Amino acid sequence: MTVWFTVQLPDAPGSLGRVATALGERGVNITGIVGVAEDTDGALMLTTSDASKTRAAFAELGLPFEEHGDEVPGMEGMTIADLRGR
């Protein structure tokens, strides 16, 4: 099952870098990523190679997140290409 994570990033330099570093230190590969920013609000939606290690990284960073997967209607087998039209 593919798990998509949605996380709100602080509007500060290095926010995305901290997420990528925390995942990389755990040996987690980002397999899909979409970012949306408007003014000072931003959200990152990503899939990774290891959902449990991703949860741990977000917890250590103190970042609240949401998970979406095959159990969410419309998310079955979703890919980045599917998000382009939304």
Tell me, briefly, the overall form. globular
Q: How many strand units?
A: 4
Order of helices and strands: EHEEHEH
Instruction: Tell me, rounded to a whole number, the average pLDDT.
Output: 83
Uncertain runs are none
Q: Strand count, sense and closure of the main sheet? A: 4 strands, antiparallel
Strand content: 25-35%
Q: Widest sheet: strand order?
A: 2-3-1-4
Would you tell me the structural class of the helices and strands?
A: alpha+beta
Span from first to last CA? 22 Å
Number of helices: 3
Oligomeric category: single chain
How would you concisely characterize the structure shown here?
The chain is α+β, with helices and mostly antiparallel strands and 86 residues long. 30% of the residues lie in helices and 30% in strands.
Task: Please characterize this protein's 3D structure.
By secondary structure, this protein is of the alpha+beta class. The chain is built from three helices and four strands. It has helices at residues 15-25, 51-61, 80-83, and strands at residues 4-8, 30-38, 41-48, 65-68. It has a four-stranded antiparallel sheet with strand order 2-3-1-4, covered by helices on one side. α1 (15-25) crosses α2. The longest helix has 11 residues, at 15-25. The radius of gyration is 13 Å and the shape is globular. The relative contact order is 0.28. The model has no long low-confidence stretch (mean pLDDT 83).
